[in-house]
Amino acid sequence: MIKNLRPLRIAGVGYSVPDAIITNDDLTKLYDTSDEWIYTRTGIKERRVVSGNENAVDLGEKAARNAIAKSGIKIEDIDCVIAAASAPPQLYPALSCNIQTRLGIPNYVPAFDMTAACSGLIYALQVARGLIGAGLYKNILLVASDNNSRLVDWEDRGSSILFGDGAGAFVVTEAEDGVDDILSIDVRADGSLGQYIYMNIPGKNCPLVDPCDETDAKIHMSGRDVYKFVVTTLPNYIDKCIEDAGMTAEDIDYLIPHQANQRIIEAMQQRLNYPDEKVISNIKYYGNTSAASIPIALVEGVEQGKVKLGSTAILCGFGAGMTWGAAVVRLRDGIC
Ligand code: COA
C-alpha cells in the first residue's frame, strides 16, 4: 500500500435491480436448454432484465440515491462522479453525466465513465482512492450500472444464460477520523486475453476508402476460457491481497465476490477455507450483473442478515479485458 494517502471512508452503499424476472424455464422458449443444465453449471435460477425504455441510467440513479441517503453526505457536496459502465444505453453522454443531471449533483463537478467490465467497481474504488488520497476530491459517487440484457445475443445459449441487469453505488469520502476503510486494494489487466469476452461497436468506414469487416454489437464470450483463467488466477491473487492487508483469511469476516458463476465462487471459498456463512452469493436470483454484482450482494446480504456491519470483507471481481481486482475493506455500521 502507498503510504501518506489521505484515508478513505466508505460512507454509503446502495443498489437497484429491475422488476422483470426471467427464469431458466423462460429461457427454454428461446433455445434448447433446461433449468437443470443452467443451474448445475452456474448456480443461476433467474435474472432481472430491463423492460421497455428502462435502462442502466434509471437503475444507476436509484442505486446512487440509495447510497447517498445512507452516506449522510449532501448531494451538493459530491464533487466527482465515476461510473463503471460496460454495457450502458449510450457510449456518450457518459452514464455518469446522465446520473449527475438526474440527481442534481452540481453541474460543474467532473463525471466520467470507465470500462473495466465486471471488475469496474474495484477499479473505480482504486481510482477514487487515488483521487481522495491525493486530496483532489472529497466526496466521490461511484456507480456501477449496466443493461447487459440489451447487448447479449439472445440466440447464444452459452452466454445469454449468465447475464442480468442491475446497479450498485458507493459513496466514498475522506475519512475525518483518520481510519482508512481500504485495507488493501489491487487491480490488474491482461489485454492479450481480450478475445475471451468482447463486444464490438459496429461502424462503416468512410465510403471513399476500403470497407472494414462488418461486426455486430453483441457480447461474445468463450465461457470455458474465462472459467479456466479465473479459477487458476483468482484464488492465488486473493491470497496476495489478504497478505497486502497484513491479515490472514481468518481475520476477514466475509468474501463478497463478483457473481459470475457459483462454481467460481466455490473455488475461491475453498481456497480461503471459508464456511458458507462467510461467503455472500446471490447469483441464484440475479445472474451476472457485471460491476454491480458486488454492491448488490453486499447490501442485499445486510438486508437479509447474512452480512453484519462493523466487519471486514474481501471484495473481488474479474471480467472482460481480462481485468481483475480485489480489495480488503472495512464495512462500517450504517453504510447500507
Ligand atoms: N443449455 C444446454 N446446453 C448448452 C448450453 C445451455 N444453455 N450452453 C452450452 N451448451 C452446450 C454446448 O453447446 C456444448 O455442447 P457440445 O458439447 O455438444 O458442443 C456443451 O453444452 C458444453 O459447452 P461449454 O460451453 O463447454 O459448457 P461449459 O461447461 O463450459 O459451461 C458456461 C458454459 C458458460 C456455464 C461456463 O463456461 C462458465 O460459466 N464460464 C465462465 C463465464 C463467465 O463467468 N463469464 C463472465 C465473466 S465476468
Major sheet description: 5 strands, mixed
Per the principal axes of the C-alpha atoms, what is the gross shape? globular
CATH architecture group name of the largest domain:
3-Layer(aba) Sandwich
Number of helices: 9
- Rounded to the nearest angstrom, the radius of gyration is 19 Å
Sheet with most strands: strand arrangement = 1-7-6-4-5
Q: Topology as H/E string?
A: EEHHEHEHEHEEEEEHEHHHEE
Distance between the termini: 27 Å
- In percent, how much strand structure appears in the residues? 15-25%
Number of domains: 2
Q: Report low-confidence residues grouped into runs of 5 or more.
A: none
Question: Would you tell me the structural class of the helices and strands?
Answer: alpha/beta
CATH fold-level label of the largest domain? Peroxisomal Thiolase, Chain A, domain 1
CATH class of the largest domain: Alpha Beta
- Which ligands appear in the coordinates? coenzyme A
